[in-house]
């Protein structure tokens, strides 16, 4: 409980929505970047960022959407995808010019206190093999 409450207390209260970075990366079909790199890039761009308690790969930020897409474009330029994996949507996003200079240098303040203290911030399964299993075939 302490970890979940810590994440909630660290959230940006004035930002109502969150973005899941694995979803943004999957739209352009590139590999998912580390959440610490994303948070650092947003902070280096001069915006605020926090985790969201709803998803471990989510961020809440006051940065405009074009900043997040610039970060994804920069990441893909450093970790290019194969041309045959590109589709119309990913090509349309990746072909746009970047509007900001992206700096993904990891910052100390990108790692929140709850993560540094290694608190359990997201709910874990209570037991091994807990939850829905495969349907019986007998």
TrEMBL record:
Listed SUPFAM superfamilies: S-adenosyl-L-methionine-dependent methyltransferases
Which keywords fit this entry according to its UniProt record?
A: Methyltransferase, RNA-binding, S-adenosyl-L-methionine, Transferase, tRNA processing, tRNA-binding
One Pfam family assigned to this protein is TRM
Catalytic activity, per the record? Answer: guanosine(26) in tRNA + 2 S-adenosyl-L-methionine = N(2)-dimethylguanosine(26) in tRNA + 2 S-adenosyl-L-homocysteine + 2 H(+)
- PROSITE patterns, alphabetically? SAM_MT_TRM1 (PS51626)
InterPro entries on file:
SAM-dependent_MTases_sf, Trm1, tRNA_met_Trm1_C
EC id = 2.1.1.216
User: Is Methyltransferase given among the entry's keywords?
Assistant: yes
The kind of enzyme this is, by top-level EC class, is: transferase
Top-level lineage group: Eukaryota
Record family assignment: Belongs to the class I-like SAM-binding methyltransferase superfamily. Trm1 family.
What is the protein's given name? tRNA (guanine(26)-N(2))-dimethyltransferase
Q: Which organism is it from?
A: Timema podura
């Amino acid at each position: 409980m302490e970890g979940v409450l810590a994440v909630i207390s660290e959230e940006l209260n004035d930002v109502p929505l969150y973005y899941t970075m694995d979803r943004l990366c999957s739209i352009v079909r590139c590999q998912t970047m580390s959440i610490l790199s994303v948070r650092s890039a947003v902070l280096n761009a001069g915006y605020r960022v926090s985790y969201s308690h709803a998803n471990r790969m989510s961020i809440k930020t006051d940065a405009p959407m074009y900043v997040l897409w610039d970060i994804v474009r920069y990441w893909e330029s450093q970790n290019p995808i194969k041309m045959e994996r590109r589709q119309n949507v990913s090509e349309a996003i990746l072909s746009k010019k970047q509007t900001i200079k992206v700096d993904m240098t990891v910052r100390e303040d990108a790692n929140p206190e709850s993560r540094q203290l290694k608190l359990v911030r997201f709910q874990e399964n209570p037991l091994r093999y807990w939850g829905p299993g495969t349907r019986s075939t007998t």
